[in-house]
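TA notes. Do not distribute before section.
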Amino acid sequence: MLITNVFLPEVMSNSSFFRSRRQKVLSETQKRGAEVCIVGTPQNLYYLTNFWGEAIAVIDDSGAHLVVPLLEKERAEESVVDTEIVEADRGVKMFDVISDLVKNKNVAVDDVSLSTYKTIASKLGKTPLAEQEIFFNVRMVKDESELSLISQGGKIMDRLYSLATEIVDTGISERKISAALVEQMIVDGADPPAYESTLNPLIVASGPNGALPHAYTTDREIKNGEFVILDLVLRYKGYVIDCTRTFAVGTISTEMKNTYNAVLKSQIEGVTLTDTKHTTGDVDTACRESLRKDGYAEYFVHGTGHGIGLDVHEPPWLRAGDKVTLQEGMTVTVEPGVYFHSKFGVRIEDSVLVKERPQLLTTFSKELITL
């Protein structure tokens, strides 16, 4: 069934979730000597008010105030939970309202633009504390409503991979595969997230393109005897699911099969340690050690994983040297890969819910599928 309003899930309408999140953010803020938060990034706005759009929120002990321009007012009224809406013209007048709301208080801001930061500082006559970690520290552990949405996104992701097995074949281009998957994603009520590090919504990388971890999707047509890496990311009602599968097309070489099996073993070992008894670094070490034993360590050139939530990439980071203790309710990726320059690559990735025993949020088969 097509979902017509992706930003008004029933589970998100419970104001207790939002009050709890705001209190946690304020607590983190107060630890740093500030009394009030000014929030401008869409992710944090959504997290604290249920509105994703052009606005600035002020969060303090009295509650949440959302300052919006006229063009966003109606949408904000339909979305916000337990939040006062204040209309103000774009530009200086918005900041006049914000200044009145926070006068004589020490202020922390999230990852707003530099121009917004300078304007706030000018209006307040003091330098606000700018520390995005205040928000990431709270957002790392997901609450019940968030986990429900992320889980539903995982089900859509699994269906996309089922579709991929029907359309990936010799002669079809990477770009046409991407187009078909994006179309189905949207029909299923999700959207491809936009992020700054790539021009493409999805990674579809065939043959030698697969040797580039962040390959662009091209007009290259799939050929017999090669791998196709599909790194799919979707946003379901605000929340991200990230998953990668590598498919074989036709008859592949023994070298390719051995590489695939080594990456699969590495990924499974990493997922096994994504629990409340281990750290982010433990997971990274397990994946690298597995690949080292099989002779592939030098070809694994990126971190093992990252947190997912309202951002595609957010803390915690699963990489060498990190020692963040994994907590129940964190959602992370585990995605080792091996890349042979100008030849081929293999990457296998799941989104995982950290619990006493890890829970896969993406469950499409990881066994080598030949199309």
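Switch to the second chain here.
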Amino acid sequence: MQIDIISVLPELLQGPFAHSILKRAQDKGLVSINLHHLRNYSTNRHRSVDDYAFGPDAGMVLQVEPIYRAIEDLKSRCHYDEIIYTSPDGELLTQKLANELSSKQNIMVLCGHYKGIDHRVREHLITREVSIGDYVLSGGELAAAVIVDSVVRLIPGVLNDETSALSDSFQDNLLAPPVYSRPAVFNGWEVPKVLMSGNFKEIERWQMEQALERTKRLRPHLLDSVDEQ
């Protein structure tokens, strides 16, 4: 998979992509993550890419021209399955969406900034708008990092144990059950005996009960999706 990210602050993304699972995925050649500075597509001597909004609203807006040039330049070199804009009013990022995006070949991500981007970009150039939650960030870089992380870890071969992702929260619209490791007893706190019983059928039953209980208590709206399936 190739992921190209356009940003006015690409340096914010260097850290998240240079460590842990995302770094290993790149080292294995399973994903290529490329950062593109939007200011490189500016045509004025100050390399500015923003201007005041038309109308009475305060705040700066990313201009249509440099964004258009950036997207068209990247499209001339690669076919993209999705051109995503990180926006607080976009489609909410869910595990289902992450699963869908992980099956794509090439993705472009445009990071919002300031007051937002010229709406003509959203009308004519973007194929999908994605939000990581109902709140506003200073820019879309952190959202882009979250989107990329949630997608890349699902690519076959990225995780050492690919079955690990299958038991993540939200994969089946349920929260994951509790997990434990050694020692079996610490400070008087014991690991549930069923997990050490070796009876996999009983363990699976316990895990399902725990998943349902935690989902009902913490995210009850998810159970509506389970009932609809």
